[in-house]
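Exercise 3.2. Students should predict the tertiary structure of the chain below and write it as structure tokens, then compare their answer with the key that follows.

Predict this chain's 3D structure.
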Amino acid sequence: MQKRDVKSKNIKIDDFFFKSFPKDPLNSAITFSKKFSLFEKGDKVVVAVSGGKDSVFLLYILSSFKSKFGIREVISAHFNHMTRGEESLRDEKFVISLSEKFGIKAIVGKARRKLESEEEMRAERYKFLDEVAKSENANKISTAHTLDDQFETFLLNLVRGKGFFSAGGILPKNDSICSVPVVRPLLSVKSKDIKSYLAKSNLPYILDSSNIDMSFMRNKIRAFLSMLPDDIYDRMLSGFFKFWLGTLAVYNLLSEIYQKNQDVIPKFLEIQIESFLKGEKLSFEEIKKSLSERAQKRN
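Answer key:
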């Protein structure tokens, strides 16, 4: 059977993705990065580092195996949300110390106002990462989102009543958030495999108490998933990875068709495609509102 690539938003998907990925987290990240063309030779990359296991792993592999990813230089960037007092300061000091250990320049930012919600924290964090990329003349920003994060985001979107395109979740490469592309090379990697890798490599990381704060819906979902037997959860993650790749291929195909001929796409899908291309996810209520507003303009 002849292979056919579907291209949109700098994403390439072919038949390879319906085969298994390497179980080793390093090789999985390398394979995923190459297949999605996340890095290019000579890239200077700002790595978002919280100090947790996933970001420590990302910083380690991108700095220690630069040639395998095609990276020229790595910079560590830590944003202190100033929400957990001494613990926030501990995180900041840890990231600075770890970066020095890896021989990497570390840049720290601090919130200038009280951040109340997850949305505010995310917005300020990406604003800081973008400022670092500009000041350091970096051409990529990398975050440590894993397959577990992707699955949680999918469930979170279900809870929030998001539309059809929300199953695309966290994109491997997003050009809409910052002035340079934001790439996620760990989206094929399971968090448990990262934990095992760090233990074998004697690499330290810290725990964030906000991850068990049940006022956040994501933490409630994570707590629910933690009650599942390990083998069931592991199979769910593997199955979801294949499902996500398939849905992403469909989204990109629809986006490609839409960009060539908008008239063949139903209006309710057109709205979601436009949102998807901007890296946004709409709820059905937002979609209905947009449909109504467009209908009124036509009348």
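Discussion points: The domain at 6-245 is CATH 3.40.50.620 (Rossmann fold). The CA atoms of residues 172 and 184 lie 5 Å apart.
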